[in-house]
Amino acid sequence: MGAPVNKLKAALASGELQTGAWLGLVDPYAAEIAGTAGFDWVLIDGEHAPNGTTEISNQIGGLSASDSSVIVRVPKGEDWFIKQVLDAGAQTVMVPMVETGEQAAEMSRAMLYAPEGIRGVGSALGRASQWTGIPDYLTTANDQMCLIVQVEAQRGIDNLDDILAVDGVDAVFIGPADLAADMGYLGNDQAPEVQDAMEDAVKRIRAAGKAAGIMCPDPVLAEKFIGWGVNFACVAIDVVMLANGLRKAALLHK
Length: 254
What we know:
Blueprint: H1 7-14, E1 18-23, H2 28-35, E2 41-45, H3 53-62, E3 69-73, H4 79-87, E4 92-95, H5 101-110, H6 137-140, E5 146-151, H7 154-158, H8 160-164, E6 171-174, H9 176-182, H10 192-207, E7 211-215, H11 219-228, E8 232-237, H12 238-251
Parallel strand pairs: 1-2, 1-8, 2-3, 3-4, 4-5, 5-6, 6-7, 7-8
Helix pairs in contact: 2-3
């Protein structure tokens, strides 16, 4: 018996469109609710939501019965944090602010056991191996790891070909807001220059045989980006949906 098959990794590799939701409410019950909605994937955000390893682990547990694949976005590309979320049961990790091929290669090694990588061997303590309940976990885990790197700055765009050349990178996710800010268009990711850079990046990513991802909770933008070739799309953000829903309800009887 080996590590669970990572169906998201397989779907992205085949070019299938995978849509999902961003989770920032930092609550296992809220994550469990999102897991019943029918998304292909849900992402637990450790960069901009106040999620530590304990909160992330608890949400992974809450999503254990969901048909949605679970992604964890780590706060930063640090091998120790990646190790902890992998042991907690994540098989797919998103790393923000990747700007060079060297960074991407380091993140790939952090995802894998030796000799391919540097992931520490402590699976007996983690959900990933079902606490030694999966006897062949160590020898099968590497094949099921999925690495998504975020390109969110002009330097990353400039080095995109080097990033795409890293075998361990399964997908590249464009961050429109940060890219726009870095290009001098803070708060305006619809600027033509930003849109052109993103479209070109998506086409290069897909041409390299990788999945191309982007943030697009607006339905009109989602259709536009999917038309470019995006096949890994965030179409909902739980915090925003809750906030907007509550504001709308508060105004009903004003």
